[in-house]
Specification:
This protein has 4 helices and 2 strands. The protein is mainly alpha-helical and 109 residues long. Strand 1 and strand 2 form a beta hairpin.
Amino acid sequence: MNSIYELIDKWERSGKVAITTESSHFKLSFEHSSVLKTLCNTYPSLTKEQILRDLLHTSLNELVAKMPYVQGTKIIAFDEDGDPIYEDVGKTPIFLSLADKHHKRIMRL
């Protein structure tokens, strides 16, 4: 899911996904707790954990998709028109490398 619209569509269809055995515990603000309870009432076939997991999943996907590209000075390739493509010197390459590392570790658990 890459957008809230897709998430709501999924909830309407009530699909299932594979999950890890890791869990996270956190406290919500009163406002977000109220919204979560409202979502639980709106989609009674879903558990609170499913809703939170889906919201987090969608938000993280959107965050990754919108990480900014910071153009460096080094040319790493040329596009189909022959224009240079510069390395990304922002956080995105580091983030993607670490994400791949953590994904591989989690998949081995």
